[in-house]
Amino acid sequence: MGSPKHQRKKYKTPIHPWSGSRILGEKDIIKNYGLQNKKEIWRAESKLLLIKKQVKRIIASSSEQSEREKMQLLSKLFRYNLIQKETKLDEILGLQINDVLERRLQTIVFKKNLAKSQIQARQFITHGHILIDNKRVTMPSYFVTRDEENKITLSSHLKIFEQEMEKKTKA
């Protein structure tokens, strides 16, 4: 189980930290998705890498257990809306980091026009103004499932505040 004081990292850092092209690519990703730091990119890359490793292992083996793992992985990725129902294992290897970052709560709040920018979406989430199925979620990196996507709403307190601000600007 491990000690809560000594938690493990959930990401791997790049092998070469000062690669200019990688740094520029990460800057673009941070800007497009409103991320706070590069650790969030590395977490998403690690999550994607684990999925790809599992797919390669499943493809290499042909046992009954690998068939079960295949079905579980496909259902998990479908539940997170990373793949479609008919997707084959080979196509999963083509997933990019953008596909994973699109499933973050922060990105989905922005795409649903609940916030004016990625940064505002992050602020709404951390301040507790975003509800999923009437439950407050305060992690911008929360991985949203296919079912939860339609249940994302603003808290009623924030809606009243926005209505008052609109009245003041019109007057």
Model description:
Helices cover 54% and strands 5% of the residues. The protein is mainly alpha-helical and 171 residues long. It has 2 domains: 9-101, no CATH class; 104-171, Structural Genomics Hypothetical 15.5 Kd Protein In mrcA-pckA Intergenic Region, Chain A, CATH 3.10.290.10. It has a 3-stranded antiparallel beta sheet with strand order 2-1-3. A hairpin with a 2-residue loop joins strand 1 and strand 2 (135-136).
Helical residue percent band: 40-55%
**In whole angstroms, how far apart are the ends?**
59 Å
| Largest sheet composition | 3 strands, antiparallel
Structurally, how many domains make up the residues? 2
Q: Overall mean pLDDT score?
A: 93
Structural class: mainly alpha
How many strands in all?
Answer: 3
Low-confidence stretches: none
Q: Please give the radius of gyration in angstroms.
A: 19 Å
Pattern of helices and strands: HHHHHHHEEEH
